[in-house]
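Input (structure):
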Protein backbone atom coordinates (compact mmCIF):
# COMPACT_ATOMS: atom_id res chain seq x y z
CA UNK A 1 0.00 0.00 0.00
CA UNK A 2 2.85 2.41 0.72
CA UNK A 3 4.16 2.06 -2.81
CA UNK A 4 0.74 3.05 -4.17
CA UNK A 5 0.60 6.40 -2.39
CA UNK A 6 0.67 9.55 -4.51
CA UNK A 7 4.17 10.72 -5.39
CA UNK A 8 4.07 13.61 -2.89
CA UNK A 9 3.32 11.21 -0.03
CA UNK A 10 5.34 8.18 -1.16
CA UNK A 11 7.91 7.01 1.38
CA UNK A 12 11.54 6.30 0.58
CA UNK A 13 12.41 2.85 -0.75
CA UNK A 14 13.91 1.83 2.62
CA UNK A 15 10.55 2.35 4.33
CA UNK A 16 8.80 0.27 1.67
CA UNK A 17 11.32 -2.52 2.34
CA UNK A 18 10.53 -2.29 6.05
CA UNK A 19 6.85 -2.70 5.22
CA UNK A 20 7.68 -5.79 3.16
CA UNK A 21 9.48 -7.25 6.18
CA UNK A 22 6.38 -6.64 8.30
CA UNK A 23 4.24 -8.31 5.62
CA UNK A 24 6.47 -11.37 5.79
CA UNK A 25 5.73 -11.65 9.51
CA UNK A 26 2.02 -10.99 9.28
CA UNK A 27 0.87 -13.80 7.01
CA UNK A 28 2.44 -16.69 8.94
CA UNK A 29 1.03 -15.40 12.22
CA UNK A 30 -2.47 -15.22 10.77
CA UNK A 31 -2.29 -18.59 9.03
CA UNK A 32 -0.95 -21.21 11.46
CA UNK A 33 -0.65 -23.84 8.74
CA UNK A 34 2.06 -21.75 7.05
CA UNK A 35 4.67 -23.11 9.49
CA UNK A 36 5.76 -26.72 9.07
CA UNK A 37 5.82 -27.22 12.85
CA UNK A 38 4.50 -25.50 15.93
CA UNK A 39 2.28 -22.51 16.54
CA UNK A 40 3.19 -19.13 15.04
CA UNK A 41 4.33 -17.76 18.42
CA UNK A 42 6.88 -20.58 18.60
CA UNK A 43 8.50 -19.41 15.37
CA UNK A 44 8.97 -15.76 16.29
CA UNK A 45 10.93 -14.42 19.22
CA UNK A 46 12.08 -11.22 20.87
CA UNK A 47 14.49 -10.29 18.07
CA UNK A 48 11.80 -10.40 15.40
CA UNK A 49 9.40 -8.55 17.70
CA UNK A 50 11.87 -5.75 18.39
CA UNK A 51 12.71 -5.40 14.69
CA UNK A 52 9.04 -5.39 13.72
CA UNK A 53 8.24 -2.75 16.34
CA UNK A 54 11.09 -0.52 15.13
CA UNK A 55 9.94 -0.82 11.52
CA UNK A 56 6.29 -0.22 12.39
CA UNK A 57 7.19 2.91 14.37
CA UNK A 58 9.20 4.23 11.41
CA UNK A 59 6.22 3.73 9.11
CA UNK A 60 3.80 5.38 11.54
CA UNK A 61 6.19 8.29 12.04
CA UNK A 62 6.33 8.78 8.28
CA UNK A 63 2.59 8.45 7.67
CA UNK A 64 1.30 10.49 10.63
CA UNK A 65 2.16 13.97 9.27
CA UNK A 66 0.63 13.08 5.90
CA UNK A 67 -2.64 12.13 7.56
CA UNK A 68 -2.76 15.41 9.47
CA UNK A 69 -2.51 17.56 6.33
CA UNK A 70 -5.64 18.48 4.43
CA UNK A 71 -5.51 17.19 0.88
CA UNK A 72 -5.31 19.65 -1.95
CA UNK A 73 -6.58 17.74 -4.94
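Output (sequence):
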Amino acid sequence: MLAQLPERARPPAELIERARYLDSLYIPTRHPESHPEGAPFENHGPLQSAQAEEYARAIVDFVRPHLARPSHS
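Notes: The mean pLDDT is 82. Residues 11-29+43-66 form one domain.
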